[in-house]
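name: query_chain
kind: protein
chains: 1
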Amino acid sequence: MQKQVKIIVYHAGQCDPKKCTGLKLKRHGLVRLVRQMKFLPKRAVVLNPFSEVAFSPADRKRIEDFGLVGLDCSWEHAEKVLLKHVRGTSRCLPILIAGNPVNFGKPTKLTTVEALVAALYIAGFKEEALQLL
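structure:
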């Protein structure tokens, strides 16, 4: 039996709560939400667009053991928030085109749910990825 993947979202509180994909995932009981970086798991894989190390299927074992973290903050303030010390193992996703209404068609400007789904799918957690959609 496969262990359930632990998914955590850091929420910086910089967005419209009605449109926030991280908060929507929390409302549906699909993720655990934290509001301070110090509460992120130390060894989890953190999806950080400013990381210099690319996410790959090799990160699957670390996700199984320690979890996956999505960072939910405004793109306008992302660099300031994410260049702080982020706990965990930072990884950036490959170049993906956003499908969200705000940044539609822009490379790498994904919502939190798009980033989490992409990471889960790349790591081989296809069923878990589809549950988030």
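note: The chain has one domain: 7-132.
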